[in-house]
Amino acid sequence: MTVLRLAVLAMMTALVFVSNYLRVTIPINIGGNTSFTLANIMCCLSGLLLGPIGGLASGLGSMLFDFTDPRFVSECWITFLTKGAMGLGAGLVMLPAQKREEAGYPRCLTGAILGCVIYYILYFTKSYYYNGLLVEGLQPQVALATLGLKVPASLFNGIIAIVVAPILCMVIRNALKKAHLKLA
């Protein structure tokens, strides 16, 4: 762990935390709420830049945000795991490229897609079991139906992360390369 890598890890944790405030929360009559947010961009970007350790930045930054909102405090540990898995998934795709210093756009795009797929599988599983069945006490069919209400915001968040995170990664990596700095 280099000083630069540690500094970027801390910076990405802070960026994930702050980006969670860029959200529009939409209450749902049954099953809680959903949000349009830009935080997923930073969660994917942390993995794309730092590799698997980027999952720590995405999980920790999102968990810290949950501590600031009473609606989310009780599930902060779940957020740490799900958002951490998003950064971890994106980072695992980047691991071979970091060793060879070749992180092109296709690899960044694949990492962002994998991170989002992992996150949304975990998010919808959490929404069904934790929010739907446990917290809300819904019947299984109703809890399943409420997931459909979260799909539009989730698609928006995922698509934006998949489009923007790889572009930001390429720009940042090129800037680091021109400055003769290595994250790996």
Describe the structure.
This protein is mainly α. The protein has one domain (3-178): Orthogonal Bundle (Arp2/3 complex 21 kDa subunit ARPC3), CATH 1.10.1760.20. Helix content is 75%, strand content 5%. The protein has 6 helices and 2 strands, in the order H-E-E-H-H-H-H-H. Strands 1-2 form a two-stranded antiparallel ribbon. It is elongated. The mean pLDDT is 91.
Q: Tell the overall outline.
A: elongated
Supply the CATH class: Mainly Alpha
Beta content comes to 5-15%
Compute the number of strand runs.
2
* Largest sheet properties: 2 strands, antiparallel
- Give the CATH topology: Arp2/3 complex 21 kDa subunit ARPC3
Oligomer kind: single chain
Provide the number of structural domains.
Answer: 1
Structural class assignment: mainly alpha
The poorly predicted ranges are none
Considering DSSP H and I runs of 4 or more, what fraction of the residues is helical? over 70%
Question: Number of DSSP helices?
Answer: 6
Query: Taking Cα atoms only, what radius of gyration do you get, to the nearest Å?
Result: 17 Å
For the biggest β-sheet, the strand order reads 1-2
